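Sorry to interrupt, but I need a hand with the structure work. I would like you to pick a protein and set down its sequence and fold. Please put the record directly below this note.
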Amino acid sequence: MEAYKTWIRRNKDYVHSLESLANGLTWLLPERFSTSEIGPEAVTAILGIVTAINEHIIDTAPSERHPGSADPSSFPYGLCISALKDLETLVEVVAEYYYGDKKWNFIAVTEAIKVIVRLALFRNSGYKMLLHGGETPNVEKDSDDTISQQRIGGFPGPGGHHGQNPLAFEGRALSALSRFGESARAMSDPTWIQRIQQQRAIMEPPTSNIKRPTLSMILSEKGVNGALFVLGEILFITRPLIYVLLIRRYGIRAWIPWLISLSVDFVGFGFLSHVTKSGTVGRDQKFHLSASEKDEVKRRKLLWALYLMREPFFGKYTRQKLEGTERLLEPIPLLGTLTGKIVELIIGAQTRYTYMSGS
């Protein structure tokens, strides 16, 4: 296993290219979106899980890690969520083939497991916003802090110098002389080691002992805004499960699951917008989003477009527009054929809950 990890980390660019090619070719597999597509979906799920494992191996490489990144010894939440998402489509196809409409029971169980894992990640991360549903670690990057941590005694530390900076070479030389002097002193006076260790313990910040925020800390510091932020994230995490449970109750073509799911998304996003918008009143209690969190907010807005692809809206409106476009472009050589293939893929993908769930 260690040999495989080493190979993946050394050839990560080649691995990424190969994975992208393989995942793209799965859309061209025969019998895709047919009644007997268990084989193609199994291939797709296996490729997705292998891709997630490879990404986890690359992200946890010692040379690739940075302060605040996931500890390789901790539970791999991102890998677990990615694997569940890849398996969910296979579970849906197999359940539909053998049990028909009872497939929603199996999908509900899968969504419930994802909710449990995401809630655990949300808590263990200090109640930070989940990026890509928890597949991407939410690590705040502050260039100023990084630079200040790299400077020791006014000189750039290892890896902190750029170009031919004479101060960098002088700093490294002084550091080497200092270490040599400490080693010589330790040889003659063993108690010197203890004094040096005590001084370093005082001067170095205890980064490993930083406590992650708890729910009580967030509520006490942020007040109502803290409660709304946590509630908004919980709504975003549990929305797919609520949607599936409502489909089990009312059916896929009923408007109630569609409307309630959309309402949950709007309410959760409304809470998030309220606690992050700038203002002079209660400014200290507002949440300041990092660049990655702002990108996540944009991604969640784009996910609303999937409501156009979900029943019953798709069957009543979207599908008619797609088929009308196909008929309009059909007489045009090449373009008509390409449009027909795209519409066929869209309609086929729409029949799968997991492709349009945004979960």
Observations:
- The longest strand covers residues 151-152.
- The chain is about 65% helix and 0% strand.
- Residues 142-170, 201-208 have pLDDT under 50 and may be disordered.
- Residues 224-250 form the longest helix (27 residues).
